[in-house]
Specification:
The complex is a heterodimer of chains A (716) and B (731).
Chain A (H helix, E strand, L loop, with lengths): L6 E8 L3 E8 L4 E7 L5 H15 L4 H8 L5 E6 L1 H7 L6 E6 L5 H4 L11 H5 L16 E4 L2 E2 L5 E3 L3 H13 L4 E5 L8 H17 L5 E3 H4 L5 H31 L7 E3 L5 E3 L15 H13 L4 E6 L4 E7 L2 E2 L1 E2 L2 E3 L2 E3 L3 E2 L2 E3 L5 E5 L6 E7 L18 H7 L17 H16 L3 H25 L9 E5 L3 H8 L7 E4 L6 H7 L3 E13 L5 H29 L8 E10 L6 E4 L8 H18 L11 E12 L21 E9 L2 E9 L8 E3 L2 E4 L4 E4 L4 E4 L5 E3 L1
Parallel strand pairs in A: 1-4, 4-11, 5-6, 5-9, 9-10, 13-23, 23-24, 30-32
Antiparallel strand pairs in A: 1-2, 2-3, 7-8, 11-12, 13-14, 14-15, 14-20, 16-19, 17-18, 21-22, 24-35, 25-28, 26-27, 26-28, 29-30, 31-34, 32-33, 34-35
Helix pairs in contact in A: 1-9, 3-9, 6-7, 10-15, 11-12, 11-13, 13-14, 16-17
Chain B lengths: L13 H15 L9 H5 L1 H25 L3 H4 L4 E6 L5 E4 L9 H11 L2 H5 L6 E4 L11 E10 L2 E11 L28 E5 L2 E2 L1 H10 L3 H29 L1 H26 L3 E11 L15 E12 L3 E5 L15 H15 L8 H4 L2 E3 L22 H22 L14 E6 L5 E5 L33 H7 L2 E5 L20 E5 L5 E5 L24 E7 L2 H6 L11 H4 L5 E6 L6 E3 L4 E5 L14 H9 L5 H6 L5 E4 L4 E4 L1 H18 L3 H13 L5 H13 L1 H11 L8
Parallel strand pairs in B: 10-11
Antiparallel strand pairs in B: 1-2, 1-5, 3-4, 3-6, 4-5, 6-7, 8-9, 9-10, 12-13, 12-16, 14-15, 15-20, 16-19, 17-18, 17-20, 21-22
The chains are: A alpha+beta (716), B alpha+beta (731).
Chain lengths: 716, 731
């Protein structure tokens, strides 16, 4: 078998429950394996999902691993294992040394962490607000006197005896790691470096060494609450996670794999698992789809995409513009704020598992924000939940097939779903349950549509410049509804929608991203020499520093720096503004006043596009508070195969059945198709339901899909 | 448009529409005379779609505003909000954010209509209006309302408004909420529904006025630009919604949303409360004798009593009455009658109407009786007075209201909904900042207060702030960009707590060291309401929060101190112990700090209070106290003295443990002690009555009672009846 099929990439997406594995051969063919995630030793789940995937190709991986793995060019890991450790609070024992006076940082939480991420109604309802359990207990947070100001000046010298005492106390507590985060260390790290030196001396004397993580080194970004959270995250879950990754790599190498294991970063980069800022990989789970879309974008020559991913609890929307995803620098994950560059993904609560309730006073229909999740799941799962969900509505409408869920592995109880909808909703409102289910279906579709619209509009973009891609197991069922009326250039999904995230992880290039805060102020009317001065002494020096760091990381990973594609970034705002815009610099260095003008003009062009023209304010001058740099080199990827187009009419074997579907107030007879049997060039007209084991595509009346040569299904 | 033809519905003028709307409400008791919200009920799904479209637009618009804005209040503290209003100015939908302005933004529109703007000023598509005068509608001049009409084929069909709190409005030093302003001019620039632009563009002459009139013009103008950009975005979305749903549906549905919410609010009140009369009172302390104001009559200290009576009527209405309130004064703490609606709005949204449907209908079942003329809440000379800092009395009053409503919730069985807030304090500053610019400064601090205990658990630590549910203290590193300060402390203060079976949340103290300040004056800011007299905002035996204290620390020689590695101040701890700090002068203010000159490296300290506890502290579950001890949120002394819980620290295990036997003994002894201290009510009454008859009350308090009796016969009668005083008794 391996003589016929040379495997090139293996890429995993380890979720909290299941690990998906994308296996790609040199011809671009791929298969997806699945296995239970094994949190204590992730190499087991990784290996099992590989074995499951190879089984679809008739290969006994356990027997043939030593034949297959030496030929594999890239093994990629992406997953939520670190996230799960964070949620279950099972990370390492970390001690923190911070600026004296801010020792209660994990208790006050900037106040904002007590409501960040809440749905609207909980946001306004104060009694629902509550604090997070500190990841670092208060007694392990030590304040040390010493202050640097925003101008880099030392105002209060470091009280070294205090620092020594703090280190000693934390070591007495047997912490596994020490995090040091002082105010303004990103502009002057002297105090953090001194504490590191003190800690090293003490640990040498005591004969016990624990890692010391300095905030300016790991995350040199302004806003101390997010910076400290980020470095604690690194020490608490990312570094222990590295041990798991080494185990996976070790197991692969024992069977002949010849390269380092690669890991996907939250900003879409890919790197060796020895990468120093491993925290960037903590939240990489949900971004695989965006990466996959980037790859599609390159292969198909379509630059602008709206990526939509619907699951059981949430609906994620991300943008690919000019073939590149957007980045955000301050993110809220699991109710904590982090300074982690992350692929922008705007999420709302809109999933198939969301509960539907009727407010006892207002009689309003309410969807979510809570979700039944996978356990107990919707009413039709018969696992104890009696409150109807969005999925129960789709089931009684006939959109979902009770005998084909997860390929028939899970039977759904339609009667139970109908009874629950009647009892909990329609008997109270005095309306027909099918009318009601149809209404819920429309409501959740509308909520998602509004979300897409606001994501685009908030950045000044129009659907008319974008294609929309739908993936995630639940997406295709709602696709026609949530894109209706939005003038996209095209709307597509694919048969492997449920496994698209792991496809994306397999398709990503090796890429690193670097950021650094700088204080560049350019007043209105600044003369040419001042602009050049700012450019040369702050902007260029900053980019030089980031580039040097990138080159050093590349060297450490054995990557060819001379082949790296380097892109300079500046974060620009008008003087006095609180937010800035990421501007991909049209110039690689500021070598003349005109270069600075070019950079600022790029900012203003972008700004005017996003906000109304009235919002421009050149009189206040400009500020660049942060610089960025990306460095990337290509790696092998799955090849997207272009198939020969066949006829419009699907083969008769593709038609499975017919059944009644309720939509827009009436029952219609819908044809049921087997998605796996559709061929390139085939067209299907609504009303129709196209079923695959892991997803269901619903076509309302008047809508049509056409499968193209890349196996994408285009909705019109 | 031809003269004589209105810009409203079917050629009506806005004034005609307003009059019709008011008449219909008056005659039918229902908003716009709607007997039954039928468009919404006929197709509830379509109604949900319609509402969610508008709400999404407002939330997205608010985000746009945040991106463009220049104010740290917007980015770090989120002091902004957007709303959609009917042509008459009635609130339909609100975004997230500071919920004070549900009605106030629209009241500005109503005022424009009443004052013939349609004819005299002109209202056209693309016109930009700005207002910040609380006499028209608002709380204080720092809140600026940007207002944009929405036209559809020549007809004005709605308004969109954005409100932002500004750091600089040109007020008299030291700040945007000036406590030194006693006359109107001291409040700063006022914009009385002024047209500041047209064709979606801000007029250059308005920008010039700002550039010439403010210390921080760019910050103010960027906020305007953010608000205008957000309003334009929402206007375009609304046009799209009208295209999709039809103009007829839009007009009917926006009005029905208000009537539906009115009915819903009545239903909520009936469901969650018990009808009856609820009464409470706060003393409002005002210390003006040291304030450097040129209007000399202002220089006197006073206390004003603010009684609050809430009647919950069986038909689901709330009526609030301030009868008995004392007189106004020459100070900045006079709220306008409109401002009171701001206080009520924020309280109502967070306790009753938090489901995203808050609008004018949430307030229609509520009534605030017009406070007595010439009282603190209704000065007849309001246009002549300063109104720059009315929050101190408002926050206390409506925090009290939350507690009264919470009591009703508790009695009805909604124990988890019971809680209250507390007012807070802060310092404001004027001077030359780290860049050499003279300007006012007000640091963010509203997110620092502990919220009241609920009926089922402790209150949330920090983040309990009546004025906005989205409390956020921001990042020090960002604030230090804007302020000539170094932040020295954000420590939770165990002594701030309102003790109880469930304690209040814990407040954060703040210490700000002036840094690179070349010349500065400072004073207290918000929250001057109760410094020496603490109102009992604990519920069912719970204690009020600890006393709020303010300090100014002046180091003897800062450089010597740090060169010798001597301790600086970072925690107040017990206030008495703090005063013994050996390396500098500690100035203590048991009331709002006066206006004074401050110097580089001075540290101003706010030791905040928290809201109330709930239930008797000696019924507190010891396990809760152990958790607090392990988290460093309390100490052994408080455990023993306030809760009668005996605890021990295990050095080896690094955790606290409770001695159950000793705790039982402590609690039994406390009960005995209470019994031994108690006196029969009649005996207490006689003793207190004698003090009144002998006029042995504090002179300020006697003057406060005199002031209330002057304005209210009812208060006088109740007071004399209760204490059995002779008819001719007077203070």
């Amino acid at each position: 078998m391996t003589a016929r099929r040379q495997v090139q990439i293996i890429a995993s997406d380890a979720g909290g429950t299941m690990t998906d594995m994308m296996i790609v051969d040199t011809q671009g063919n791929f298969t997806i394996g699945k296995a239970s995630t094994t949190p204590k030793d992730q190499s087991l789940g990784f290996w099992e999902s590989l074995a499951d995937g190879f089984e679809y190709w008739g290969v006994d991986f356990n027997k043939e691993a030593k034949t297959i793995l030496p030929g594999v060019e890239a093994a990629v890991y992406s997953g939520t294992s670190m996230m799960n450790a964070l949620i279950t609070e099972t990370g390492r024992k970390v001690g923190v040394i911070t600026t004296r006076g801010d020792e209660d940082v994990f208790l006050h939480e900037r106040s904002a962490q007590k409501w960040k991420g809440y749905a609207y109604q909980d946001l306004l309802h104060h009694v629902t607000h509550h604090g997070n359990n500190p990841l670092v207990p208060r007694r392990l947070v030590k304040g040390v006197e010493g202050r640097i100001d925003m101008f880099t000046t030392e105002v209060i010298p470091l009280y070294e005896d205090m620092a020594r005492g703090a280190v000693e106390e934390l070591l007495d507590e047997k912490v596994d790691a020490i995090v040091v985060c002082f105010l303004h260390s990103f502009v002057n790290p002297a105090h953090e470096l001194k504490v590191e030196q003190i800690a090293t001396e003490i640990m040498e004397k005591r004969g016990r060494k624990v890692p010391v993580y300095l905030s300016h080194r790991l995350c040199p970004i302004m806003r101390e609450v997010g910076r400290l959270n980020t470095v604690v995250l690194h020490a608490y879950v990312a570094e222990p996670g590295r041990e798991q990754l080494f185990k996976i790599e070790e197991r692969l190498k024992a069977s002949g794999y010849r390269h380092p294991l690669q890991i996907v970063l939250a900003h879409g980069g890919l790197t060796d698992i020895r990468y120093p800022r491993l925290y960037e990989a903590s939240f990489s789970g949900p971004i695989g789809g965006l990466l996959g879309t980037c790859y599609l974008s390159q292969s198909m020559g379509i630059d602008n995409w709206v990526c939509t991913d619907m699951g059981g609890t949430s609906f994620d929307v991300g943008l690919i513009r000019g073939g590149q995803p957007l980045i955000e620098r301050e993110v809220v994950i699991n109710r904590r704020i982090y300074n982690i560059p992350t692929l922008q993904m705007d999420t709302i609560g809109a999933g198939t598992g969301m509960y539907i309730t009727i407010d006892p006073i207002t009689k309003r229909v309410s969807i979510g924000p809570e979700s039944a999740g996978a356990d107990p799941g919707p009413v039709c799962y018969e696992m104890g939940n009696e409150t109807p969900t969005v999925m129960d509505c789709a089931l009684i409408m006939g959109i979902l097939n009770p005998d084909n869920y997860l390929g028939g592995k899970k039977k759904l109880n339609t009667k139970k779903a109908l009874d629950a909808i009647k009892e909990k909703c329609t008997d109270i409102l005095g309306v027909d349950p099918y009318y009601f289910a149809d209404g819920v279906y429309k409501l959740i579709n509308s909520r998602m549509k509004e979300h897409i619209r606001s994501v685009l509009h908030a950045r000044g973009f129009s659907p008319a410049s974008y294609h929309l891609l739908c993936y995630g197991g639940a997406g295709p069922m709602h696709l026609a509804g949530y894109c209706e009326g939005l003038p996209f250039r095209g709307v597509a999904t694919m048969p492997w929608a449920a496994g698209f995230s792991s496809f994306g992880c397999a398709a990503v290039d090796i890429s690193h991203r670097y950021q650094k805060s700088v204080p560049v102020l350019i007043p209105a009317g600044a003369d040419a020499s001042y602009k050049l001065l700012m450019g040369q002494f702050l902007v260029n020096v900053g980019w030089d520093e980031l580039e040097k760091q990138a080159a050093s990381d590349f060297a450490a990973e054995g990557l060819p720096w001379e082949q790296a594609k380097v892109q300079q970034i500046a974060y620009v705002r008008y003087g006095g503004q609180m937010e800035d815009l990421e501007v991909v610099s049209p110039v690689s260095r500021i070598n003349s006043p005109e270069d600075m003008d070019t950079l600022l003009a790029a900012f203003e062009k972008l700004y005017e596009k996003i906000y109304a023209g009235v919002a421009k304010h050149q009189r206040a001058g400009f500020q660049i508070m942060e610089l960025g740099l990306t460095a990337s080199v290509p790696k092998v990827k799955p090849k997207l195969v272009r198939h020969t187009l066949e006829g419009k009419t699907p083969h008769k074997d593709a038609v499975k059945d017919e059944r009644n579907v309720y939509y827009e107030g009436e029952w219609s007879r819908a044809k049921i198709y087997d998605m796996d049997r559709l061929r390139p060039g085939n067209e299907v007209n609504g009303v129709a339901v196209i079923e695959a084991p892991a997803t269901t595509l619903f076509l309302p009346p008047g809508r049509r899909i056409r499968m193209d040569e890349w196996l994408l299904m285009w909705l019109t | 448009m031809a003269r004589g033809r209105g810009i409203g519905d079917r050629g009506k003028t806005l004034k005609q529409m307003l009059e019709d709307n008011r008449r219909l409400l008056r005659e039918s008791g229902r908003y716009a005379g709607i007997t039954k919200p039928h468009i919404l009920k006929d197709d509830p799904i379509k109604a949900e779609l319609f509402h969610s479209r508008i709400m999404s637009s407002l939330i997205a618009g608010r985000e746009t505003c945040k991106q463009v804005s220049g104010s740290p209040y917007v980015r770090e503290v989120a002091e902004l909000c957007m709303g959609l209003y009917t042509p008459e100015g009635d609130a339909v939908v609100q975004s997230t954010g500071i919920q004070v302005h549900v009605r106030l933004m629209g009241d500005n529109v109503t005022w424009m209509i009443e004052n013939n703007y349609e004819e005299d000023v002109g209202i056209q598509d693309g016109d930009l209006f700005l207002s910040n005068d609380p006499v028209i509608a608002g709380v204080h001049a720092a809140d600026n309302y940007d207002i944009l009409p929405i036209f559809w084929k020549g007809e004005l069909v709605a308004w969109v408004c954005t409100v932002i709190m500004e750091m600089d409005i040109g007020a008299v030093s030291p700040g945007c909420m000036p406590c030194t302003a006693v006359e109107r001019a001291g409040d700063g620039l006022k914009f009385d529904c002024e047209k500041i632009g047209s064709n979606d563009k801000i007029r250059r002459d308005f920008e010039v006025r700002i550039e010439m009139g403010l210390d921080l013009p760019d910050l103010f103008l960027l906020d305007r630009k953010g608000a205008v950009a957000a309003n334009i975005r929402v206007r375009e979305d609304i046009k799209e919604i009208i295209r999709e749903f039809g103009l007829g549906y839009f007009k009917k549905a926006t009005r029905e949303l208000i009537e539906e919410e009115r009915l819903n609010q009545i239903a909520r009140i009936k469901q969650r409360t018990i009808p009856g009369r609820y009464r409470d009172i706060i003393p409002f302390e005002i210390y003006m004798s040291t304030i450097p104001a040129s209007w000399l009559p202002s220089r006197k200290d006073m206390i004003r009593l603010i009684p609050m009576q809430m009647d919950i009527l069986p038909e689901g209405r709330l009526v609030i009455d301030f009868d008995g309130i004392g007189e106004w004064g020459w100070h900045a703490y006079n709220p306008t009658t409109k401002a009171l609606w701001g206080g009520l709005s924020i309280a109502v949204v967070q306790t009753l109407s938090y489901d995203g449907r808050a609008n004018l209908g949430s307030l229609l079942p509520c009534d605030i009786k017009t406070p007595p003329v010439d009282s603190l809440f209704n000065p007849s000379q309001i246009k002549k007075l300063a109104t720059g800092n009315p929050w101190p009395s408002m926050i206390d009053v409506f925090s009290l209201w939350c507690g009264m409503l919470g009591t009703s919730f508790y009695m009805r069985g909604f124990r988890e909904e019971t809680f209250n807030y507390v007012s807070g304090s802060g310092w404001q500053l004027a001077g030359y900042d780290q860049f050499g610019n003279k300007r006012p400064m007000l640091a963010g601090g509203p997110g620092t207060f502990g919220a009241g205990a609920t009926g089922v658990c402790d209150g949330v630590d920090t983040g309990g702030w009546l004025a906005t549910p989205e409390t956020d203290v921001g990042n020090w590193e960002v604030w230090e960009l804007f302020m000539p300060e170094m932040y020295m402390s954000r420590m939770l203060s165990p002594y701030s707590v309102g003790y109880g079976r469930y304690r209040s949340g814990i407040s954060m103290g703040t210490m700000d060291m002036l840094h690179r300040l070349t010349l500065g004056i400072t004073s207290g800011a918000i929250g001057a309401a109760h410094d020496r007299i603490i109102p009992n905002i604990g519920l069912f035996g719970g204690y009020p929060g600890g006393k709020r204290n303010s300090f100014l620390v002046r180091y003897r020689n800062f450089q010597d101190l740090v060169n010798n590695r001597l301790p600086l101040v970072h925690e107040v701890g017990h206030p008495k112990e703090f005063l013994s700090y050996p390396h500098g002068e500690i100035m203590y203010f048991d009331y709002m700090p006066p206006c004074m000159e401050v110097f580089d490296k001075d540290v101003y300290v706010v030791d905040n209070s928290s809201a109330g506890g709930l239930g008797d502290p000696i019924e507190r579950e010891p396990a809760l106290q152990k958790t607090d001890l392990d988290n460093g949120l309390t100490n052994e002394e408080i455990s023993r003295n306030m809760y009668c819980i005996a605890v021990h620290y295990d050095e080896k295990a690094k955790e606290w443990s409770v001695d159950d036997g000793e705790t039982r003994k402590l609690r039994a002894a406390k009960r005995k002690e209470r019994l031994s201290r108690g006196v029969p009510v009649e005996q207490y009454w006689r003793q207190a009555r004698q003090l009144i008859l002998d006029k042995k009350l504090d002179p300020l308090l006697q003057e406060a009672y005199r002031s209330s009796m002057k304005l209210s016969q009812g208060f006088t009668r109740d007071y004399k009846d209760f204490w059995g005083l002779p008819d001719d008794f007077a203070f």
